Amino acid sequence: MANSENNVAIVTGASRGIGAAIAERLAADGFTVVVNYAGNAKAAEELVDRIEAAGGKALAAQADVSDAAAVTRLFDRTEAALGGVDVLVNNAGIMKLTTIAEGDEAFVDNQIAINLKGSINTMREAARRLRTGGRIINLSSSVVGLYQPTYGVYAATKAGIEAMTHVLSKELRGRNITVNAVAPGPTATSLFLDGKPQAVVDNMAKLAPLERLGQPGDIANAIAFLAGPDGAWINGQVLRANGGII
Ligand SMILES: NC(=O)c1ccc[n+]([C@@H]2O[C@H](COP(=O)([O-])OP(=O)(O)OC[C@H]3O[C@@H](n4cnc5c(N)ncnc54)[C@H](OP(=O)(O)O)[C@@H]3O)[C@@H](O)[C@H]2O)c1
């Protein structure tokens, strides 16, 4: 991508957490950003206001990524409003923790529907529609590698996303589109923090040699590199952004 001006990025799950930091960073880099969300319209609209107040361009767009038709409409609306799509950041995700023995059917189905099928839904549309020079960046997790107890189903969805990343990078041969994944370690968002006792959080923060939790901005920096001109030669890779935890 020659430069980020006039290029359009869809960031899924951008109303909060890591996705919001990615949207703000890509907007600061010159992208027009589509701030996708599932249910939190207020947070998405407030983020659009913040981006615009800082001189960037953004719009909010509701779509449940697990619904293939809704994802098609998200891309249709983006093309109609902004002329095309150059970057997809597949960030929307949920994490539920329990052992494989304890997890019921809904526990399994929800994570597969949103994390894995949701990413497949958006990758399908991106593969069909991204303009030449485009970028697809998927959010995996460093649990693919750490494999802690209770993370089995979540890790399986992220391992599937890594597999799709490698395959799609090859399927897009000749289109000048790269497909990569970023795999954060523990990052200070509600997905990681909610329901964990402070002692567990403190313990996990010390696991990486850099001895702190990741911040959403740390992950946005890695995404911005892959989305921008300096990332042009990186393709089919998984970048673990985790302070060295694994
Ligand atoms: N935080 C970590 O430690 C960590 C580590 C490794 C990887 N990750 C990955 O990083 C990504 C972002 O995580 P986060 O920590 O920022 O999570 P978060 O703070 O819980 O935010 C999740 C975002 O995803 C959206 N979302 C949830 N279900 C959706 C659906 N069906 N369709 C569209 N959007 C949906 C939410 O939208 P609403 O606000 O509308 O609900 C929200 O914007 C996830 O893929 C996660 O697996 C996180």
UniProtKB/TrEMBL annotation:
The keyword Nucleotide-binding does not apply. InterPro entries: NAD(P)-bd_dom_sf (IPR036291), Sc_DH/Rdtase_CS (IPR020904), SDR_fam (IPR002347). SUPFAM superfamilies: NAD(P)-binding Rossmann-fold domains (SSF51735). It comes from the Bacteria. Pfam families: adh_short_C2. Keywords: Oxidoreductase. Belongs to the short-chain dehydrogenases/reductases (SDR) family. This is SDR family oxidoreductase. It comes from Rhizobium lentis.
